[in-house]
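[Protein data]
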Amino acid sequence: MDTKRKRVPFELWNIWKIESWLIEQAQNGRILEKLSSFRATFRLAEPQNLEYRMIVMPEKDTTPTNTQELEQAGWDYVTSHQYYHIFCSQQADATTEIEKDLMKQAQSFSGILLDLRKRLLFNVLMIVAFIGLVIALFMDVEAISEWLNVLCQA
């Protein structure tokens, strides 16, 4: 069984571009086997018309709760990487109620980004506060107040 590794041309958060890219790869005879942040491993086969969908879960390494429903609707589980779970289908028209659920779950990625931004902001503020305390401990308080007065007057 021949395999080919390719660099993933988009960030994983760009779900629709990744899905389109995977569909294009299948049409060129490369069927996804494994995905990481930077590389995808494909099995070389005959060109196929496959639909790919990525489900984003709000917690790392958790599996989608509706996996059995997806499989009953014709979606096959392919692989997972951290927050992302990829399914494929040979159905020409993959628009179903489950498809709508997939889109809602994919939108939960914005919640993940918001959480990461909040954590980053908190950490930056803590570092700035820590640096301020260290400076205050090693500097004369009067010198700091004079320095602040000079800045305020400028």
